[in-house]
Amino acid sequence: MSTTDERAGLSIAEAAERLGLSTHALRYYETEGLLVGTPARTSAGRRRYEEADLRWIVMVQRLRATGMPVREVREYAELCRAGAGNEQARLQILRAHRERVLSQLEEVTHHLGAITAKIDLYEAGPSTAPADPSSLRPPG
């Protein structure tokens, strides 16, 4: 952990606001080992976030928003912290996650099509809309 000038970087509140997160979430990311680097600290011990920290946090947000479990984000961050030589392991994590996201996207797209078809029926007029809501049962 390095000490930095009070004016360098963003405070935790400024970083949180810029990222659309709470300060609690930023602290959580740090304590859970989801960050690649530990934010610099002022002589008073206050966190200061640099652009590289913010870019990484945005990536963490994207991974989490697409359903990557915290343990996998932590594993990915650990590999990144370790430096060169483990790129294939990082790639494997990201490829596996991409496959899960693509599968979820396909499923959601299918559901969206069913919802759109139902909207089209209602918009066509009351005589074409089915009275039985069971036609919206999920597949299974």
Describe this entry's structure for a reader.
59% of the residues lie in helices and 3% in strands. The termini are far apart. The chain contains five helices and two strands, in the order H-H-E-E-H-H-H. The model has no long low-confidence stretch (mean pLDDT 90). The protein folds into two domains: 1-83, Orthogonal Bundle (Multidrug-efflux Transporter Regulator, Chain: A, Domain 2); 85-140. The chain is mostly helical. Helix 4 runs antiparallel to helix 5. The protein has a two-stranded antiparallel sheet.
Q: What fraction strand?
A: under 5%
Sketch the major β-sheet: 2 strands, antiparallel
The tally of helices reads: 5
Distance between the termini: 52 Å
Low-confidence sequence ranges: none
Strand and helix order? HHEEHHH
How confident overall, as mean pLDDT? 90
Output the structural class: mainly alpha
Describe the strand arrangement of the main beta sheet, using strand numbers.
1-2
Q: Report the CATH architecture of the largest domain.
A: Orthogonal Bundle
Helix content: 55-70%
| Radius of gyration using CA atoms only | 22 Å
Q: Which of globular, elongated, flat, extended, rod-shaped describes the shape?
A: elongated
- The tally of strands reads 2
In short:
The chain is mainly alpha-helical and 140 residues long. It has 5 helices and 2 strands.
Present the secondary structure layout:
Elements: H1 12-19, H2 23-31, E1 40-41, E2 47-48, H3 51-65, H4 70-82, H5 87-124
Antiparallel strand pairs: 1-2
